[in-house]
Amino acid sequence: MEPKMSPRASRPSQRMIAELANVSQSAVSMVVSGQADANRIPQATQDRIRQIMREVGYVPNVAARLLRSQRNGLVGVHTYERVFPIREEDYYHDFLVGIEAEAVEQGVDLVLFTSTLRADGTRAVYNDGMNRLRLADGAIFFGLEKDDSELTQLARDGYPFVFIGKRAIEGTDIPFVTADYAGGIAATLDVLQEAGHRSIRYLASTQRALPQHERLEAFTAEVTARGLRDGIVEAPADEIRDRLDEILDGVTAVLVETVELADALHGALAERGVRVPADLGVVVLDASPPNAAAAAWSHVGFPRREMGAAAVRLLLAWLEAGVVPESVTLPVAAPDPRSVGSARSAD
C-alpha cells in the first residue's frame, strides 16, 4: 500500500519521509546527501527510505541547500591527460559517463575544465597562482597522469576534490575511489581453478602504475597460497609476437594485465593457430572497448561507470559535511567463463 500524503501538503518533506519510514530525520538527511554509508546507516534502512521517497515523489530541494551553503551547484571535472575522454573507445570514457549520470541524479551541473591545457600539451590547475577550478564547488580528477605539487597545493588551500583511482602523496590526504584489484584477482583465480587450470601465466605491462602493482602483488600472493604453478612475463605490446613461446611455455591459462596486451596477444595467437579457449584459457584484467580485438574474451567486471558515480557522491558528501571523507573501494566482479575453457595438459 502506498503512503498517502495529506491534501494540505504541497510537497513531501524529509520530516514526512522520516515518519513514514519510522526513522530519524537525520537518517533521511544522510541518505539524501550521500553520507549514509559513512554514518553506518544499515543498507536495509537506506533502501526503505529511498522506497518511501519514490512512492511519495520526494525530490531534494537542491536550490535551497545550495543557497544555505553558499554553493553554486557546479562540480568540476579535471584530467591531467592531454585529451578529455569524449570518444566512446577512450579508456576513461566510462568514468565520465558515470560522473554525468550521477550528476543528473544528484541535481548538480558539470564543468569540464578544458582551459587548463597549456601550449606544451600538459595541463595545469594553477595559472599565475590562480586556481581555475574555483569556478566549481569542488572537482573530480581522473587519469594516469598527475601533478603531486598541484594536488598538495589544492589540499593546502582546502579546495574539495576527489580522485578516481588510488592516489598517495606523503603528508596529503586525498580521498579517492578505487577498485578492489586484489579481490578481482582472487575471483579470477577461483574461476580458473574451477575449470581445472593450475599452471597460469601473468602477462604484465612494462608501464607500471598503482593498479598494475596491486594486481601483480595480489597474483603472486594468491598463487603461492593456492599452490599453483605460475610465471610472470613483462613485455610491451609490440614484443608479444616474438615472445609468444615464452608466454605459452608450460601453462594452460594466461591473465592479461591490459587491453593493449590483450589485443596484441589476440593477434599473435591467431597467427600461431592457438585457439581460445580450446587450446588456452585467457582472462583480461581490465575492460576492453567494444571494438577491441580481444573484446570477446573473458574480462573481469571492472566498475568504471560505478567509480565515476561514486566519485560524485564522495565529493558531494565532502561539500555537505565540510570534512574530508573516507576513500571508497568498489568490488571487481569475477570474469565470465567464455574464454576460460577447460585446462588441457601443459606441455
How does this structure look, described?
There is one protein chain. This protein is an alpha/beta fold and 347 residues long. It has three domains: 14-60, 434 Repressor (Amino-terminal Domain) (Orthogonal Bundle); 69-179 and 304-330, Response regulator (Rossmann fold), CATH 3.40.50.2300; 181-299, Response regulator (Rossmann fold, 3-Layer(aba) Sandwich). The protein is built from eleven helices and 13 strands. It has helices at 14-21, 25-33, 43-56, 62-69, 93-106, 148-157, 181-194, 210-226, 244-248, 259-272, 304-321; strands spanning 74-79, 109-112, 126-127, 130-131, 138-142, 161-164, 176-179, 199-204, 229-234, 253-256, 281-284, 298-299, 328-330. The strands form three sheets. Strands 2-1-5-6-7-13 form a six-stranded parallel sheet, with helices on one face. A five-stranded parallel sheet has the order 9-8-10-11-12. Helix 6 links the parallel strand 5 and strand 6. The longest helix is centred in the last third of the chain and has 18 residues, at 304-321. The termini are far apart. Residues 1-10 have low confidence and may be disordered.
